[in-house]
Sequence to fold (252 residues):
Amino acid sequence: MTEDEIRRQLEFYRDLGIKSVYRRQHQTTAAAAAPAPALSPEPAKPITESQEITVVPPLEPAHDNLLKILQDIGECKRCRLHEGRNRLVFGSGNEQAKLVFVGEGPGADEDEQGLPFVGRAGQLLTQMIEGTAHKEGIPLTRDQVYICNVVKCRPPENRTPQPDEMEICGQFLYRQLQAIRPKAICALGSTAAKALLATKDGVMRLRGKWHQWRDIPVMVTYHPSYLLRPYNQNAKKEAWDDLKKVLHFVYD
Ligand code: URA
Fold:
């Protein structure tokens, strides 16, 4: 591995929120052939950039694509969210999309259909995308963008995903974004903003301004579920403004 590749990989782990990585000793052929001592892993040693990484698997395989990522997720049981799921919700839309929307996690309708944003919040999102684009003279339909979530399985009672669930599922979100490499990402709500920007700031503070995930511009706006609540109607205008900014940036 070159120094540059090591640096890139460490940056990738940092983006995932992983604070330290460990290396195992090289195994000689004889040692590899010998049975591994049961339940006695050798003590982990923190690595620095100048040391050689030997066993950390690449999280972003070369020539990654959505099908490969979906196959790698498989019948996922990596976290507790699989226990209550009917269907895993991977994402939908155009693999070559210039714009990706990231939500929080599937709700009941999405869990039933295996597709993101197909319930009430989804209908509002479709209206927001297509209605705003139409008003701005941009011919765009929902199937031309890509839509996915931070976690792929429905959290019980639609609760907010927990940090470990976000971290485990985050590796697949990151691979999706890296495989698509859109011109911009729109983070819907605070869970998506937290996952992409590693920030504790809320949507009100973050929205309307450009941020970055790796080198891709990210706009944060309100989650459509938030906009469906009658007492949040003022936020609708702001969400529409945010979306206008994104659409002009991506499609002008
Ligand atoms: N809310 C989300 O965050 N994602 C969906 O797919 C549906 C509702």
The pocket of uracil is lined by residues 103-107, 110, 116-117, 119, 121-122, 149, 225 (CB under 6 Å). The radius of gyration is 20 Å. The beta strands are 22-23, 45-46, 92-93, 99-103, 146-149, 184-188, 210-213, 216-221. Residues 24-45, 51-57 have pLDDT under 50 and may be disordered.
